[in-house]
Amino acid sequence: MRAAEQAAMAAGTSEWELMRRAGEGAAQWVMRVAAGRSVTVLCGPGNNGGDGYVIAHALRRKGYDVQVVAPVEPKSETALHARAQFSGEVASDNWLRNPVIVDCLFGYGLDREVGGAFAKLLETLSTSNCYKIAIDVPSAVHSDSGEVLGPFVQYDLTLALGAWKRAHFLMPAMGSMGARRLVRIGLELADMPACLSARPHFSAPDPDAHKYRRGLLAIVAGAMPGAPLLAAEGAMRAGAGYVKLLSEHSHPDAPAELVIEQGRFAERIADDRISAFLVGPGLGRDDSARDRLERVLARKVPTVLDADALHLIDQTMLDRADPAKLCVTPHEGELAQLCATFGIGAEQKLERTRALHEATGLTVLAKGPDTVLQSDVMTSFFPLGSSWLSTAGTGDVLAGIAASRLATHGDPARSCDEAVWLHHEAARLASPAFSAGDLARAVKPAMAAFL
Ligand SMILES: NC(=O)C1=CN([C@@H]2O[C@H](COP(=O)(O)OP(=O)(O)OC[C@H]3O[C@@H](n4cnc5c(N)ncnc54)[C@H](O)[C@@H]3O)[C@@H](O)[C@H]2O)[C@@H](O)CC1
Ligand SMILES: Nc1ncnc2c1ncn2[C@@H]1O[C@H](COP(=O)(O)OP(=O)(O)O)[C@@H](O)[C@H]1O
Ligand SMILES: [K+]
Questions:
Q1: What are the boundaries of each domain within the chain?
Q2: I need a labelling partner for 136 at 20 to 30 A (CA). Which of 295, 349, 392, 443 fits?
Q3: Band of residue 188 on the pLDDT scale cut at 50, 70, 90
Q4: How does pLDDT run across 69-93, given as a tens digit for each residue?
């Protein structure tokens, strides 16, 4: 963000002009929400506070009753300029008298725990029943890590200025932001190493399609039958032309359209029409599970690794595989396990995800409310999914969808990206209180949203 702002300034746009665009753009949103009600703007010492004075000035010009509360005077030259323009009341007390509060205490310049008068203001804000708007990021949020460094405030609306920051898509910060909207200020944001995933687009199968051309997915079953069946239910609706379950057991409850192959595993996986594998859900962690995983990895076919496979995989197996064709889909605990296996010391989710990719070459889809995808080219973040997804088996469904997409085109990063969107849309359609089976069945109508 700083680099993009520096580039804009080097090209002739002043910092004041950027602040004016940011503040006036944000003020449009504030007015839409306030709809004539009185507004209090909290202004801090830096340029986030500067934005606050621009917002206050813009509201006042439109006839709004505006109170500014600022514990200290601005420190930066541009913020002082903004302060000088605002001719209304500026108080330094802790009395927030209006029904709409705009928080401009700190933006991405927050670099330490919030204390003193600023913390008191945020505490007052947290207990007030007013409508709360955060400008750029909530003021106690560290914009790079998503950590909350002060009193926790639940906002109704967060207006990101110029570009999304990482904290807009990382927990715990994202959980405090309410609705999130982006205010554009004309920055060039090409070649960013991180982005918000763009909605994917799917097409109907080609006119000359047949089941193998559309992709044959082989799901490796193991000790527990439920998880691979859930994965298969998702996979059959996510694009692959043919989904098979390779299993030693019979599955009397399996749907008729799911082909179950029993018999010698080595022969089954040798079929060169298989365009992707899914290994892990229900696999187990014994020697037989390890043996199956090793054999699949040695095939060097695009593969999704989930659940038990994430506990079994190690460097020796990876040395015999082609990591560029593999994606792993860990939840928090599995990510911790993978980091332990591959000697990664990072603490935070984003750093762990990136370090795991760096160390292994695997495409990493780190699941959770703040899902992060790390591939060779990009870190991707996603809009928030339904919190009803927090139920057992939904990860198996996600793995099935990702493997199905992988079977259709063979690109691990694209598969994971598409799978998150399909999973979220299926969850939206199946909500509320769905089971993993309901979710898998909702993948079919979810597909329609992306055609
Ligand atoms: N630089 C630019 O070109 C633009 C910046 N904009 C705004 O500027 C913000 C960033 O501005 P700044 O870099 O000035 O940073 P901030 O306004 O976020 O705050 C930094 C100031 O707060 C102090 N500070 C940090 N943590 C503190 C704490 N815990 N307790 C007390 N004081 C603390 C710092 O010493 C510094 O004085 C963005 O978030 C955005 O709102 C926008 O106006 C768009 C243009
Ligand atoms: N609170 C939440 N909000 C949004 N998505 C969630 C939430 N909790 C879990 N999820 C999603 O639900 C899925 C859970 O996967 P996982 O933990 O592997 O479950 P399981 O192993 O039971 O299948 C993941 O896709 C995750 O991103
Ligand atoms: K803020």
A1: 2-192, 216-448
A2: 349
A3: confident
A4: 999 999 999 999 999 999 998 999 8
The percent of residues in the chain predicted with pLDDT above 90, rounded, is 92
Nearest ligand 1 atom to alpha carbon 54: 43
81 is in an annotated binding site: no
Domain range 216-448, CATH architecture: 3-Layer(aba) Sandwich (3.40)
Domains 2-192 and 216-448 alike in fold: no
Locate 44 and state its tokens: 């801090």
Rounded to the nearest angstrom, the distance between the alpha carbon of 198 and the centre of ligand 3 is 26
Q: Ligand 2 within 6 A of 333 CB?
A: no
Q: What homologous superfamily is domain 2-192 in, according to CATH?
A: YjeF N-terminal domain (3.40.50.10260)
Average pLDDT over residues 46-50: 98
Q: What is the pTM of this model?
A: 0.94
Q: Which ligand is nearest to the CA of 143?
A: 1
